[in-house]
Hints:
The complex is a heterodimer.
Chain A: H1 10-44, H2 46-65, H3 69-85, H4 90-105, H5 113-147, H6 149-154, H7 160-194, E1 205-209, E2 215-221, E3 231-234, E4 240-242, E5 251-256, E6 262-266, E7 276-280, E8 282-286, E9 292-293, E10 307-310, E11 316-324, E12 332-337, E13 340-343, E14 354-360, E15 367-368, E16 371-374, E17 381-386, E18 388-392, E19 398-402, H8 403-407, E20 426-434, E21 439-443, E22 448-454, H9 457-483, H10 488-503, H11 505-517, H12 528-537, H13 549-571, H14 575-578, H15 581-586, H16 592-619
Antiparallel strand pairs in A: 1-2, 2-3, 3-4, 4-5, 5-6, 7-22, 8-9, 8-11, 10-21, 11-20, 12-17, 12-22, 13-21, 14-16, 14-20, 15-18, 18-19
Helix pairs in contact in A: 1-2, 1-16, 3-7, 4-5, 4-7, 5-7, 5-9, 5-10, 7-9, 7-16, 9-10, 9-16, 11-13
Chain B: E1 13-14, E2 17-18, H1 23-34, E3 40-52, E4 58-71, E5 75-79, H2 86-94, E6 101-106, E7 109-110, E8 120-123, H3 135-145, H4 150-163, H5 179-190, E9 197-201, H6 209-224, E10 228-233, H7 236-242, E11 245-250, E12 253-259, H8 260-264, E13 271-273, H9 279-291, E14 298-300, H10 306-319
Parallel strand pairs in B: 5-10, 5-11, 8-9, 9-10
Antiparallel strand pairs in B: 1-2, 3-4, 3-6, 6-7, 11-12, 13-14
Amino acid sequence: MVLEKDIPKFVEWVGPAFFSYLLGLAVFAVVVGGVAWLVQTVLYGPMAAGDRVYHGAVGLVGDLGRVSWRRVTAMTRLAVKESLRKNVLVALGLFAVVLLFAGWFLDPSSVNPGRLYLGFILTSTNLLVCLVVLVLAAFSLPADIKAKAIQTVTTKPVRTIEIVLGRFLGFSAIGTASLLVMGLAGWAFVVRSVAHEHLLTQEDLEDVAAADGSLAGYRGRTSFRQGHRHWVELGPEGSGRTDVAQGHRHAVRARESADGKRVFEVGPPEGLLEARRPLRGRLTFRDRDGSPSAKGISVGAEWGYRQYIEGSTLAAAIWTFEGIDERDFPDGLPLEMIIRVFRTHKGDIEKGIGGSVRVRNPRTQVETAPFYFTAKEFTIDSIMIPRQVAVTSPEGGTRQVDLFDELVDRKSEAVGPADAGGGGKGRIEVVLQCLVPAQYFGVAQADFYLLAGNGSFALNYLKSCLGIWFSMLLVAAIGVTFSTFLSGPVAVLATLSVLLVGQVREFLSRWYESLVTGDATIVPGGGPIESLYRIITQVSITLELEETPAVLAMKAVDTLLVSPMRLLAAVFPSLGSLGTGEFVASGFDIPLDLIAEHSLETLGYVLPCIVLGAVFLKAREVAS
Amino acid sequence: MRVSDRGGAPELETEGLLVNPGTEKNLVAAANAAGSSSEIVVETRNLSKVYRDFWGRSKKVALKPLDLQIRRGEIFGLLGPNGSGKTTTLKLLLGLIFPSTGEAVVFGRDATEVSKNERIGYLPEESYLYKFLDAEETLDFYGRLFDMPPEERRRRATALIEMVGLTRDRKRQLKEYSKGMTRRIGVAQALINDPELILLDEPTSGLDPIGTREMKDLILDLKARGKTVIMSSHLLADVEDVCDRIAVLHQGELKELGRVEDLLRVTDTTQVRARGLPPAALEELREVCRKFGGTEIEVGNPTITLEDLFLEVVRDADARPGRRASQPRS
C-alpha cells in the first residue's frame, strides 16, 4: 500500500491544523467581503456598498444565533421527501445491477482477489453515493427557484442559513441511508465472493520420510478452486497450513471419519480480509559502498516514491523501529514487507530475486544472522524473527541470544525514558539487502513494517465507509452551496471542478517543494508555462531546457505563479485524501487518528460551505 | 340624477350600508364595522425597482418611486394592467427582491428583515407549492417554518383544510390537485400562522365564479377579524367588491390612490334610489323629490364602475405620460 506521508498523531496534528484553518478562513472571509463590496460598489456606490456589506455580515452573525432547529428539520424533511418521491432509490437499484454483473468482470483468480473485490465495491459505492448526492444537492434549490416554490418558503420567517443547512442535512441523510444499504450489500458481496473451500484427500498427498526413514509428514496439493490451488505440507498427525496463493492461505486439520478413514478439513481463507496494524519505522539507505545515503537509486521511474538498492553490493535499506515493547511481541518480531523488483536482466524468471533481512541493535551494532527470502512482487512477504536468534557482534563470533535482551536498544538517548509500565520500549534496526547481482529491490518507508496486531476487518470496512461518508458530506455541502446561485447543471460542473482542483492539491504542493528545494526530480517539467512550452515543442520533461532569456522569463513567471496557485489549491478539498478504501483493500487497519483528522477536515469544509451558501442565497433575489 | 332599478326590485342603500340580507353583505357590514385603525402597517418611501442585466445596465424600470401607507385593518388593492408593477410592489414588501432606491417598511421593520414574516401570510399569483407533498404535509411543513409546536400545527392544519374544503383530499399529493384545489391549499398555507398582514397576488386568478366568490368572502372575513389585506389584481370587479382603498399602477407608476367609493363617486350628479315603488310612481317621485324630502329615499352621488375608472386612468396615462389622474370627476 502506498503511504506517501506519515499519518500524524491526532493530538500533534490538531493544533497546527486548527491554526492554519483559522488563518485560511480569515483570509477567505476578507476576500469574500472584498468581492462583495466591489460588486455592491458598482451597483450602489462605495459608501452604500460598505453599509450593505457591514449589515449583511452583522445580519449573518445574527442569523447564526437565531437558527431554529424545527425550521432546519422542516427543510431537512422536505429534502428527504423530495428525494424519495423523485425516485432516488433508483440509485440503489443501479448498485444492485452493478453487483449482479460484477461477478462477470472481476477475476477471482487474480493475484489478490480480496483487494480486487474490495477496491471495486468501495470505489463503486463511493462513486454512486457521491453522484446521487451531487445531483440531488445541485438540482434541488435551482428547481425550487425556477418553480418559485422558494417564494412560499422565504416569505416565512426562515433564515437562509436554515434553508441551506436543512437541505444539506436532508441530502446527507439520503446519502447516509444509501451508503448504509450499499455498504451492507457490498460487504455481503465481498465476503461471499472471496469465500471458498478446497478439498484435500489422502490421494492428493504423498508421504515425506525423515532421514531415519520414519514418517515426517505429508506433502501435496489441494483441489483447484477460484483459479488457484495450494501446496500443503502437513505434519505426521495431518495438520498444518497451505502455502500463500492469491494473498491467502488455509489451515488444514485431519480427523477420523465414521468409517475410520482419515479426512482432511481445509479451513476458510486466511489473510484475504485482514486489518493489519503495522508499526512503521524510519527508512535510511546505504549506497553500494556501504556509506549512508539520503536516497536509494533512481531506476528512472518518474514517481520517486520507491527508491532502489542494488543487489550483491553493500547497498541496503535500513528501517529503524521505535517503541518496540516485549509485551507487544512475545513470540518475536513478525516482519512484513512489500518489495518491488527491478531487473536489469531477465535472469531466472521462475526463481525470483533473493534477499536477506538482518535485525540489528542500533546502539551496539550487534546483529542477527541473515534471514533469507525470495521477493514476491505484489504480495506481502512475511518473516518471523524468533525470540532466540543467532547474533554476530561487531567484534566477531556467533551466539544465541534473546531478541529483546540483545537487539532492542532500550538505553540510548534516542529511546528516552522507559515507560511507567516497566520493561521499557526500545529501538531496533532492520537491514534489507538484495542478494542477486545487477538486480534491484525497490522499497518505500511504508513498505516494511512490524505486524503489531490485527484489527477487526468488519470494523475496518465500517471505517472505510466512514471515509466515503465524509466524501459524500463534502459533495453535498459544495453542491448545495453552488446551487444557491447557479443553475443545476452549472452547479454540478462547478462542484466537479472544485473537486478536480482538490485532486491536484498534492501535486501543487510537490511542485512547490520542487521549486523551493531546487530538486527538479520531485516534479520534473516545471510549472504551467514551462509545461505548456514543453508540450508545444515536444521536449521531454526529463530534459533540461537551455537557459535562454525566454526560458528564464518563463521560469520566473512559473515561480511567481506557484505560491498563489498552491494557496488557492489548498482551499479546495481533496476527496482523494479523504478516501481510505486503499487501506481496507490492502488489508491494513485504518488508524483512528486518520479518521479523527478526516472528520475535522470534513467539518472544516462543510461549515464554511453552508455559511457561504447562506450568504449567496441571502444576497440573491429569489423572485427576480 | 339616476334611479337604479334591478329587475323591478330596486335596492335601497343608506350611507353605504347594505340592507339586503346575504352572506357577502353581512361580511361587508362586519368588515366595515371592524374598520381600520391609524396604525401604519406598511409604508413605502420612494420605493423603486429597476431590473438590470449582468453588466448593471438598466433593463426595465419595474416600479417608479412609490410612496404608500397602509393602515391596520384595511383591504388595500393594487390595481393595474399586466406589467404595471403590482407584483413587483408585493415582492418588494415581502423582501423577495431588493429595492433599487427607497425603502419598504413592514411592521416598522425593513422589508428584507426575516423576522417580519412571522406576522405575514402570502399567497403568490400561482400556488407555488411543493407538488410532491399532500395537503397535510404541506401545512405541517409551513407550520414548522413558523416554529409551531406539533399540537398547534395539527390543530391549525386540520382547521384550515376543513375551511378550504379539502378534507377528503388531504392525503393526495398536490400534483394531483386541480387548479382551484391548489389555490385553496395555497390560501391555507398563507393563513397557517394566523397572520396580521396578508398579501394576496391575484387571489381570484384561475378560480371559477364560485371560487371567486368564496375568495372574496374570505378576504372580507379576514378584514372582519381585524387583519390587514393587500391584494393585487387586474380583475376590477373583485377589487371593487372588497377593497377599501386602491392604488392604480401603470407602467410602474402610481396613477391613482384613494378610497374606492371616493374614486368612483361622480360629485356633480345626484342619485335617488327607492325600493318597492311601482313604475308609475317614479315620475311622481321625481316631482316629490323636486318639492319635498321623503322617507326611505337615498339621495347621493352615483358612481361609475371601477372598470370605467380603470380604463380612463390607463387611457389618460397613455395620452399624457407623467400626469397623475387625481382630479375630481365631473
